[in-house]
């Protein structure tokens, strides 16, 4: 009788350990998007922005991951840097997409400060164990060729320095303002969202697949 109880107890303990171990392997990974109005569906119908389209594409391609869109219209790199630590603790993302810097440029903020904020965000995400994708931006020509050139080069330099993935220009292919932009000529319209997703997807998809398949 004692032997039978001992065997049953060992079986029960084994089952408990197995049940405790399952969530670590079966829980969905999380993708965190940290951006500004370009990712927050500014001026668009809810559910029509590129992040919502991304979620649909992930489902269609059976890439099972939770998608958290923490984007806020008007966000700067300083605001993103301040918010990121709490987001990392709360969501524990496997992949972080950083789409910030455009508002810094439009406000004429010092490039050195923008670069430092982006660097700190990448390092914080990396320290948490997340893979990082940086979405590069460019300034309109009226900001001057020198500033525009240095602004675009900032993203490429950070990607090389920190060894993270980069989309060189998030808004590539949207050169026609009449076709792709809202009346303010700053925010892409609904027709532009699929182009923006197509710019991101070839770089983001391998990161997602690697993290989702990682045990």
What does this 3D model show about the protein?
α2 (50-60) crosses α8 and α3 packs parallel to α5. The radius of gyration is 21 Å and the shape is globular. It has a single domain, classed as SGNH hydrolase (Rossmann fold), CATH 3.40.50.1110. The protein is of the alpha/beta class and 215 residues long. The model is unreliable at 1-7 and 15-26 (pLDDT under 50). The protein has a five-stranded parallel β-sheet, sandwiched between helices. 54% of the residues lie in helices and 12% in strands.
Sum up the structure in keywords:
215 residues, alpha/beta, Rossmann fold, 5-stranded parallel β-sheet, 54% helix, disordered N terminus
Compact summary:
The chain is α/β, with parallel strands linked by helices. The protein has helices at 2-26, 50-60, 77-91, 102-106, 111-127, 145-162, 177-180, 193-213; strands at 29-35, 65-69, 95-99, 131-135, 165-167.
Unreliable parts:
1-7, 15-26
Q: What number is the mean pLDDT? A: 90
Number of helices: 8
Helix content: 40-55%
Radius of gyration: 21 Å
Total number of β-strand segments? 5
- The topology string of helices and strands comes to HEHEHEHHEHEHH
Class from secondary-structure proportions: alpha/beta
The CATH superfamily name is SGNH hydrolase
Q: Within the largest sheet, what's the order of strands? A: 2-1-3-4-5
Instruction: Return the CATH architecture.
Output: 3-Layer(aba) Sandwich
- Tally of discrete structural domains: 1
What is the makeup of the main sheet? 5 strands, parallel
Strand content: 5-15%
Termini separation: 41 Å
CATH fold call: Rossmann fold
- Which overall shape is indicated by the principal axes computed on the Cα atoms? globular
Level-1 CATH class name? Alpha Beta
